[in-house]
Amino acid sequence: SAVISQKPSRDICQRGTSLTIQCQVDSQVTMMFWYRQQPGQSLTLIATANQGSEATYESGFVIDKFPISRPNLTFSTLTVSNMSPEDSSIYLCSATGVGEKLFFGSGTQLSVL
Amino acid sequence: QKEVEQNSGPLSVPEGAIASLNCTYSDRGSQSFFWYRQYSGKSPELIMFIYSNGDKEDGRFTAQLNKASQYVSLLIRDSQPSDSATYLCAVGRDVDKIIFGKGTRLHILP
Questions:
Q1: B6, B100 in Cβ contact below 8 A?
Q2: Which residues contact A74 (CB under 8 A, 6 or more apart)?
Q3: What is the mean pLDDT of residues A43-54?
Q4: Is residue A22 over pLDDT 80?
Q5: Among A15, A100, B4, B16, which has the highest number of CB atoms less than 10 A from its own CB?
Q6: B46 at interface of A, judged by CB pairs closer than 8 A
Q7: Mean pLDDT of chain A
Q8: What is the pLDDT of residues B50-91, one digit of tens each?
Q9: Which range among A63-67, A82-86, A93-97 shows the weakest confidence by mean pLDDT?
Q10: A60: pLDDT confidence band, cut at 50, 70 and 90?
């Protein structure tokens, strides 16, 4: 399985600010994704990070709020913009490689005050 | 609306017994089925996957799939306290459209 490094692991942010989360995979992967896990809830797909082009967003998520970059096969960033307390959540980077199984990074615990 | 349903639990099982976790899904076109284990404060860890009807065994874990009944289950034999976690069922047609259930909290009683 791919090893997925994600940082920061946690952060406490002020309302109205933005946070960029970085995700690095140790090997080439076919697809990269960003998920959100709100307290007591399951995982919700935010978007698919596409290499060299705009991410594909799921219903309810927009690029202005969650801009995503993927400049190469092994690296992606997710920015949570103009944060509000409702954005407090765990954000998870994930990727698929050989065999198309989905693996997760260690996650970013975000708290917005 | 495609859905994956799990009993939230907690499911309490004595140490050494078999833990049985169940999951139903709504999309008949689903092709891939996964079980993830998530410890509190940690990210999900893939423990089993199954693509075909029937049983698949890996160590103490057995995944069972019945596509006709749209049902997938996970059996954990010889349950250990370290198995105490939330187990997420995930189902999808393609890897970019995987839907997760809300998870079942499993508590192994020493």
A1: no
A2: A24, A25, A26, A27, A28, A29
A3: 92
A4: yes
A5: B4
A6: yes
A7: 92
A8: 999 999 999 999 999 999 999 999 999 999 999 999 999 999
A9: A93-97
A10: very high
Token readout for A19 is: 């946070």
Count the Cβ atoms, other than its own, within 10 Å of residue A86. 8
- Look up residue A28 and give its two tokens: 């080439």
The residue in chain B having the minimum alpha-carbon distance to the alpha carbon of residue A96 is: B95
| Residue B72 tokens, joined | 């997938």
Both structure tokens of B65:
């799939």
The pLDDT of residue A99 is above 70? no
Q: Under a CB-based contact definition with an 8 Å cutoff, are residues A83 and A112 in contact?
A: yes
Place of tokens 């909290």: B105
Cα of A107 vs its chain's centroid, Å? 8
Interface of A with B in 32-61 (CB under 8 A): 33, 41-45, 48, 56
How is residue A48 written in tokens? 């698919």
Q: Considering CB atoms only, which of A41, A101, A106 is closest to B49?
A: A101
Token pair for B108? 């192994």
3-class SS at A107? coil
Contact B105, B86 (CB under 8 A): yes
Cis peptide, bond prior to residue A39, ω within 30 of zero: no
C-alpha B49/C-alpha A98 separation (Å) is: 14
| C-alpha–C-alpha distance, residues A44 and A35, integer Å | 5
At B42, list the tokens.
């940690």
**Distance in Å from the first CA to the final CA of chain A:** 36
